[in-house]
């Protein structure tokens, strides 16, 4: 069975850039999984520090209502990995999940760490490239011209253990099954 992981699609990140395209693809993925009866698991990054952008009580750390309503499960995390000190692995085992599809933010931290951790735990992993993004830029990393999403997607794809596809290729693969 498959599960969709939506990583950190929280207000503070969504409001820090123009992510309409990525959010649209995430919505399509959520609808695909809901219609097939596969679980949608939403990860929410939280902090207990009051001045942190993910402080659990701040509006920015909250999930958009539509995403919250469509989630079958919401799991809070405190590190980039959705597996570290959370109930995610136990939930996936209980649901007999074999394959996780990853979407969300920030690709170079939480999506990357979660993809590697999922593979390390024996799951088949697919990252939906156009359903991920980051609030960071080439200036953040002092690497002019760096396309962060493309760079991380290339690294994961070249690992030969984590599949990276665009939404259209995901759709084609689903209809071929």
Commentary on this structure:
InterPro entries: Isochorismatase-like_dom, Isochorismatase-like_hydrls, Isochorismatase-like_sf. Pfam families: Isochorismatase. The protein contains seven helices and six strands, in the order βααβαβαβαβαβα. The radius of gyration is 15 Å and the shape is globular. The chain has a single domain, classed as Isochorismatase-like (Rossmann fold, 3-Layer(aba) Sandwich). By secondary structure, it is of the alpha/beta class. The two termini are 13 Å apart. Strands 3-2-1-4-5-6 form a six-stranded parallel sheet.
> pLDDT below 50 for ≥5 consecutive residues: which ranges?
none
Summed up, the domain count is 1
In order across it, which strands form the biggest sheet? Answer: 3-2-1-4-5-6
Could you say what the CATH topology is called? Rossmann fold
**Quaternary structure type:** single chain
Helix/strand structural class: alpha/beta
Instruction: Report the strand count.
Output: 6
Tally of separate helices: 7
Helix content: 25-40%
Mean pLDDT rating? 91
Radius of gyration: 15 Å
Strand content: 15-25%
Outline type: globular
Please give the alpha-carbon distance between the first and last residues.
Answer: 13 Å
Shape-level CATH architecture: 3-Layer(aba) Sandwich
- Main sheet summary: 6 strands, parallel
Protein name: Isochorismatase
Domain Isochorismatase-like: 3-139
GO molecular function: hydrolase activity
InterPro entries: Isochorismatase-like_dom, Isochorismatase-like_hydrls, Isochorismatase-like_sf
């Amino acid at each position: 069975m498959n599960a969709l992981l939506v990583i950190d699609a929280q207000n503070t990140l969504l409001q820090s850039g123009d992510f309409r395209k990525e959010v649209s693809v995430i919505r399509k993925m959520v609808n695909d999984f809901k219609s097939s009866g596969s679980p949608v698991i939403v990860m929410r990054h939280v902090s207990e520090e009051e001045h942190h952008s993910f402080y659990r009580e701040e509006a920015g750390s909250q999930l958009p209502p539509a995403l919250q309503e469509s989630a079958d499960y919401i799991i809070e995390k405190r590190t980039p990995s959705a597996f570290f000190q959370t109930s995610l692995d136990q939930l996936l085992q209980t649901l007999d999940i074999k394959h996780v599809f990853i979407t969300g933010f920030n690709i170079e931290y939480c999506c990357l760490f979660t993809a590697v951790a999922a593979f390390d735990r024996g799951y088949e992993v697919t990252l939906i490239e156009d359903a991920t993004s980051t609030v960071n830029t080439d200036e953040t990393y002092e690497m002019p011209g760096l396309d962060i999403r493309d760079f991380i997607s290339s690294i994961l794809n070249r690992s030969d253990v984590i599949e990276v596809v665009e939404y259209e290729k995901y759709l084609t693969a689903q209809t071929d099954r």
